[in-house]
TrEMBL record:
Domain of life: Eukaryota
Organism, as annotated: Caenorhabditis remanei (Caenorhabditis vulgaris)
Signal peptide (UniProt feature, chain positions): none
UniProt cofactor(s): FAD
Similarity field: Belongs to the acyl-CoA dehydrogenase family.
Single GO cellular component term: mitochondrion
Name of the protein this chain belongs to: Acyl-CoA dehydrogenase/oxidase N-terminal domain-containing protein
Pfam families the record matches: Acyl-CoA_dh_N
InterPro entries from the UniProt entry: Acyl-CoA_Oxase/DH_mid-dom_sf, AcylCoA_DH/ox_N, AcylCoA_DH/ox_N_sf, AcylCoA_DH/oxidase_NM_dom_sf
Keyword annotations from UniProtKB, A to Z: FAD, Flavoprotein
SUPFAM superfamilies named in the record: Acyl-CoA dehydrogenase NM domain-like
One Gene Ontology molecular-function label: flavin adenine dinucleotide binding
Amino acid sequence: MDRKGEMDDRVLKGCFDNGLMGIEVPEKYGGSGSKFFDAVLVIEEISKVDASVAALVDVHNTLFVPLIIELGTEEQKQKYLPRSVTEAVGSFALSLKSVQVQMQHSEAFLVFANADPSQGYKGITAFMVDKDSKGFSIGKP
């Protein structure tokens, strides 16, 4: 996978099939309802074998999912959380001007961007972008 710069689909499927992608997702959305500490333990163990897989599981479980749980509307929770447990990888992006995305497996992205640079860091806002949104493209690896 490292030589090709690609995630093997079987590995990704294994992460979903073994419940590694919905650690903190509440049970009512199909997750295990576990805690952040449990996610850290899972990520630490995966890191012993493959840092790239661990990074994917980490970003999904500790950046993407928790922000939807804490700040998402009920409509967003119903749309993104069940799929984030079973099939859809989420990503996180931070940009001051533009975003070049290279996560070809991700279905949705939490984008943090400075919508008003005159405000400094207080101009940063967050929004959801589905991978099939008009004007959005996934960059080359």
